Amino acid sequence: MGQSVRIEVEGRRWVALRVAHAQEFSAAEELSARGFLGYCPTGAKFRLKGKGRRPSRIVHHPVFTRYIFCGQLAGQVVGRDSRIGVDSVLGDSRGPLLIPPSVIRHINDLELAGEWDATKSWREKSPYAPGSEVVVTDGPFSGFPGTVSALESECRIWVLIQMFGRLTRAQLAPCQIAAA
Questions:
Q1: Per the domain annotation, does 4 fall within a domain?
Q2: Which residue in 61, 114, 147, 177 has the most C-beta neighbors within 10 A?
Q3: What is the pLDDT of residue 124?
C-alpha cells in the first residue's frame, strides 16, 4: 500500500473515480482484485511527533485526495460501488471522462521521479551539485560555461564563471543554467 511502482497504461481505458474519505488505497486494491487496474499516485512525507514537532516516521499519502484512476479493459465498466468506497465516476451526461494513457503515464513518471516525496530536501532533488559543469542559458552571462560552487537555496545557485581570464562568482536561478 502506498509504494510507487511502474504501471502498464497501454491497452486500457482510463477513468477517474471519486472515493470515500481515506479510502484511496483500499479502493485501488479492491478494484485491482476485481480485474481492473486501480492506480492511486502516492507521495511521501514525515509524520511529526512531540512538542518540538520532530519527524518520527515516513508515511505515504495519496497525491490526489479522494481520487484514484481506474484502467479498464475492453468490455469492463466500473461504476459506483459503496462496498469498496467508490462514490462516483467522473464524467457528464455523455458518460465517463476518459483520460488519455499518456496523462496517466506522465503522472506515474512524476511519482517514480519523487516529485511528491517531501522526505527529500531540495538539495537532494537538485540536478546540480557543487563541482557540476554548467552553461549559463539566460541573463548577462548567457553562453558562458561555469562550475557550480554552492547551492544556497532552491532558487539560488552560486556559479563560478571564467570571464576575462579570471573567475567571477555569480548568483543564478536554476532556470538560468543547464548541465554542460
A1: no
A2: 177
A3: 73
H/E stretch holding 172 reads strand 166-172
Cα–Cα distance measured from residue 114 to residue 116, given in angstroms and rounded to the nearest whole number: 5
Is the pTM higher than 0.70? no
pLDDT in tens, 86-125: 999 999 999 999 999 999 999 999 999 888 888 777 677 7
Spatial CA neighbour of 45 closest among 128, 109, 115: 115
CATH of the domain at 162: 2.30.30.30
Contact predicate 161/149, CB 8 Å: no
Give 82's strand partners.
Answer: none
Please tell me whether residues 116 and 88 are part of one structural domain.
Answer: yes
Q: Residues 28, 99: one domain?
A: yes
Lowest mean pLDDT among 12-16, 55-59, 68-72, 73-77: 55-59
Residues 6+ apart with CB under 8 A from 21: 66
Q: Do 22 and 111 have their domain in common? A: yes
The cell 532552491 sits on which residue? 154
Burial of residue 174, with CB atoms counted within 10 A of its CB: 0-12 exposed, 13-18 middle, 19 or more buried? middle
Residues 155, 73, single domain; the answer is no
**Do both 70 and 134 map to the same domain?**
no
